[in-house]
């Protein structure tokens, strides 16, 4: 995703636990780092309608755990408050960072991320972009009603993770992530990636929220990235970085925003390449928080 997150494609990464689960049709992947247990859960994309009628012939579609015979759609649809969903929502996908045997921690999940998207009209740059986008594509959008674009059609999340339990204290800090440490090519002990949601904006761009996690001997690093590309109009990158050094009683969470019109991108940078866009743009907003274990 950026130079602080080199891919381990050529590495053999040891995995502590990776197994498919029949209920939900899920796959889990876990690793222990000191007093922290990281669990990655992946499932298929949310269907657009109830699948309960298929439960008898396809029992793996049952969203189990409590004995209720309900499909994934029926189990998760009531939990989602956003009225206009992205085309692809992986409602069962989550990354959980649990401290001290699960007493408290932070997780990144698709449901909370989707629910953080505004479902009402905004008055900031998103509306201006929507007008340009719609005007430039009057033919392809002429079937859309005015109501259809009266929400945050960019699917920009207001989400930096979900804290659970009572053992974490979050406060502003002047501390910074150790980029020298992060860019060192240390042996990777654990790596995984997953998508929370995505949309192609009616074939006029993309809006994607993805997570990557890397654990080496001395630290754990998580990158939650939202990338928005509106063809011929704009790009936006929202990053949340979570950085935990070994044996330290706190972790750092950095939130940053980069944004540009397509016309202002350097000529050698393709808006199709989120990593290249990230490197070409300076952050317009950076917020760093210290999350202490208590």
TrEMBL record:
<protein>
    <recommendedName>
        <fullName>TIP41-like protein</fullName>
    </recommendedName>
</protein>
<dbReference type="Pfam" id="PF04176">
    <property type="entry name" value="TIP41"/>
</dbReference>
<dbReference type="InterPro" id="IPR007303">
    <property type="entry name" value="TIP41-like"/>
</dbReference>
<dbReference type="GO" id="GO:0031929">
    <property type="term" value="P:TOR signaling"/>
</dbReference>
<comment type="similarity">
    <text>Belongs to the TIP41 family.</text>
</comment>
<dbReference type="InterPro" id="IPR051330">
    <property type="entry name" value="Phosphatase_reg/MetRdx"/>
</dbReference>
<dbReference type="GO" id="GO:0005829">
    <property type="term" value="C:cytosol"/>
</dbReference>
């Amino acid at each position: 995703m950026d130079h602080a997150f080199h891919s381990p494609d050529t590495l053999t990464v040891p995995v502590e636990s990776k197994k498919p689960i029949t209920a939900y049709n899920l796959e889990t992947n876990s690793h222990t780092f000191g007093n922290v247990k990281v669990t990655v859960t992946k499932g298929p994309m949310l269907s657009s309608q109830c699948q309960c009628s298929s439960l008898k012939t396809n029992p793996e579609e049952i969203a189990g755990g409590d004995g209720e015979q309900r499909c994934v759609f029926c189990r998760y649809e009531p939990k989602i408050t956003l009225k206009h969903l992205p085309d692809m929502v992986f409602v069962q996908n989550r990354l959980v960072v649990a401290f001290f045997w699960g007493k408290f921690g932070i997780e990144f999940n698709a449901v909370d991320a989707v629910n953080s998207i505004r479902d009402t009209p905004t008055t900031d740059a998103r509306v201006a972009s929507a007008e340009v986008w719609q005007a430039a594509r009057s033919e392809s959008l002429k079937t859309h009603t005015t109501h259809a674009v009266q929400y945050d059609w960019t699917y920009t999340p207001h989400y930096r993770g979900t804290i659970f339990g009572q053992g974490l204290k979050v406060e502003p800090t002047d501390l910074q992530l150790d980029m020298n440490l992060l860019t060192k090519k240390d042996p990777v002990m654990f790596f995984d990636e997953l998508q929370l949601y995505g949309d192609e904006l009616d074939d006029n761009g993309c809006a994607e929220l993805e997570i990557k996690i890397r654990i080496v001997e001395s630290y754990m690093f998580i990158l939650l990235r939202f990338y928005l590309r509106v063809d011929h109009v704009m790009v936006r990158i929202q990053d949340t970085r979570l950085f935990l050094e070994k044996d330290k009683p706190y972790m750092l969470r950095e939130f940053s925003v980069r944004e540009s019109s397509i016309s202002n991108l350097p000529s050698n940078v393709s808006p199709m390449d989120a990593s290249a866009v990230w490197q070409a743009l300076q952050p317009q907003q950076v917020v760093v928080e210290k999350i202490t274990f208590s």
